[in-house]
# Entry
Amino acid sequence: MKLNNKIALVTGGSRGIGKAIVQSLVKSDYTVVFTYKSNEKLSDIIVKDYKSNGIDVYSFQMDQSSRSSVKNCITQICEKFKAPISILINNAAIAQEKPFEMIGDNDWESMLKTNLQGPYMLIQEILQGMILSKFGRIINITSIGGQWGGFNQVHYAASKAALISLTQSIAKIYSNKGITSNAIAVGLVQTEMAANELNSEEGKKKVSNIPIGRIAEACEIADTVKFLCSNKASYITGQTINLNGGMYFG
# Structure
């Protein structure tokens, strides 16, 4: 356990934005834990890389679409460190490029189960420890798609819009208990998950229309997460921070 005694859980922390968030929080002396769904080999490589540099980072398997998997993961983490989770970064998500008329019921259900029900279950399972500690930071990684809708990702956009609403509801209910709840709505970011969209004609048009003139780096998202985790952000709650290079001003 690190000196500041705060455990930070980053879901989906082995790639893309999640990996950058892990890297950023490690530098702030948190005890950092990340989850992976199936790629145990990759998560082990990441943990060993940190270990070789004298840094302890921990990984746990979790399928956030399953309540039992979420409960089991949270229990393991709290038992290992004998402490509650202080910071929750709901980053893990799935995306799918599909015309609206081709989206099936299974596509829709899978998207909302992972991108919305997962964060809801994680918050629910972790919340009691935050309440007892009178401290908590909940940060949900959402998307510009949840603000202005989706074209070939209607179900993805719907899940991210609902996540923004969940963020606001948690802030209304629990901010007076020392728990802040905020969302970060990202635009286009250089990640493996976004590669397909960026290579499409629609994606290329979006890039050309970014006022700041470039795509975001994952580390820029991570830096904002780190700030929201800190005491300097203790009066920020219920907000959606737009990190989109000027693509959307709402």
About this structure: The first strand starts at residue 7 and ends at 10. The mean pLDDT is 94.
